[in-house]
């Protein structure tokens, strides 16, 4: 799994012909390639394709649109966030164990 350093978001007013409503492109600042992967979001109720890897090595993760806000929040508020492909499934996860009830600024409740 590699750490994500940067990302950009694209949201479409109408789903593309392949059913994609939004995409998040993920980049790293180090390693053999800077582009890590792409998260594609499909309208809820649409059949979501299996995750995989492109011919040029990008990890392709496909999710329902209902997961979009949570994924954006994860990228905005957690660090490090890592991306990988495990058993053919895309995995986006925090790199550290989080304390229950602790905010990112260390001001737990």
TrEMBL record:
UniProt-listed Enzyme Commission number(s): 6.3.2.13
Organism superkingdom: Bacteria
UniProt keywords, alphabetically: Ligase
Molecular function in Gene Ontology: UDP-N-acetylmuramoylalanyl-D-glutamate-2,6-diaminopimelate ligase activity
Top-tier EC class: ligase
Name recorded for this polypeptide: UDP-N-acetylmuramoylalanyl-D-glutamate--2, 6-diaminopimelate ligase
Native species: Plesiocystis pacifica SIR-1
Gene it is expressed from: murE
């Amino acid at each position: 799994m590699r750490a994500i350093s940067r990302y950009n978001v694209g949201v479409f007013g109408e789903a593309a012909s392949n059913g994609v409503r939004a995409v998040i492109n993920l980049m790293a600042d180090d390693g053999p390639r800077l582009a890590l992967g792409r998260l594609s979001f499909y309208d809820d109720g649409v059949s979501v394709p299996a995750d995989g890897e492109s011919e040029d090595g990008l990890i392709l993760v496909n999710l329902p649109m209902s997961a979009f806000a949570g994924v954006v929040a994860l990228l905005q508020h957690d660090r490090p966030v890592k991306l990988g492909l495990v058993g053919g499934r895309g995995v986006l996860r925090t790199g550290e164990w989080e304390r229950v009830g602790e905010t990112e600024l260390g001001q737990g409740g």
